[in-house]
Design brief:
Layout: H1 5-25, E1 29-36, H2 42-56, H3 61-82, E2 96-102, E3 106-116, H4 117-131, H5 135-148, H6 159-168, E4 172-178, E5 183-193
Antiparallel strand pairs: 1-2, 2-3, 3-5, 4-5
Helix pairs in contact: 2-3, 3-6, 5-6
């Protein structure tokens, strides 16, 4: 089923506006926003852009490294899940975004992309499972996954989500907006304490 580019654009714009509105209500500011239609190389490029902006405002180097590592993991997931799209879809249908907000205590990273509806249950399961664990349980789960080598159809074992939680040391927040019977727009929020 073809995805209407105007619908995707309006979903992304509405999501970013909702993030900005929520940030303003909590005295947070939007620190960084980037839209993607081409997914190749987004992890390294975006990480460098964010690092440069954080360095300019004299953010702690440990926080910069943590944010960069989380961004790379998240954007690898975006690339992996966006690959669910049919080959005949234009790159506009790979539409994704990243928005980073900042308040006195933390940064919040929001990343969104199109996924197949049948990916939603797997993502929700991974997020819910990890959110129920404390830091030690996440470490043990990571070791268990590495030992057992259980891989999904996409070639991953959920290690990206595990790595994100290990680095951020916070809970994940997933949001899904149904586009049509085959696709949804998915975004993930990861908070990183300063």
């Amino acid at each position: 089923m073809k995805i209407d580019n105007k619908n995707i654009t309006s979903i992304i714009e509405a999501r970013i506006k909702a993030i900005e509105t929520a940030a303003a209500k909590t005295n947070a500011t939007v620190f960084y926003t980037e839209l993607f239609s081409e997914l190749k190389g987004i992890g390294a490029r975006t990480s460098k852009n964010v690092e440069a902006a954080l360095t300019d405002q004299e953010t702690n180097i440990k926080v910069i490294r943590k944010i960069s590592a989380v961004i790379i993991e998240i954007l690898q997931n975006v690339t992996k899940h966006a690959a669910c799209l049919p080959a005949n879809q234009t790159t506009e249908n790979s539409a994704s975004f990243i928005t980073i907000t900042e308040n006195n205590a933390s940064f919040s990273i929001y990343v969104g992309n199109i996924i197949k509806n049948d990916c939603q249950e797997d993502i929700e399961h991974k997020v819910t499972t990890l959110n129920k664990m404390d830091e030690q349980e996440v470490k043990a789960y990571h070791k268990h996954i590495l030992r057992t080598g259980s891989l999904s159809e996409k070639g991953g074992a959920g290690l990206g989500y595990i790595t994100i939680v290990k680095k951020a040391k916070t809970k994940l927040h997933a949001n899904f907006i149904k586009i049509n019977s085959e696709y949804s727009f998915y975004d993930l929020q990861v908070d990183i304490n300063k």
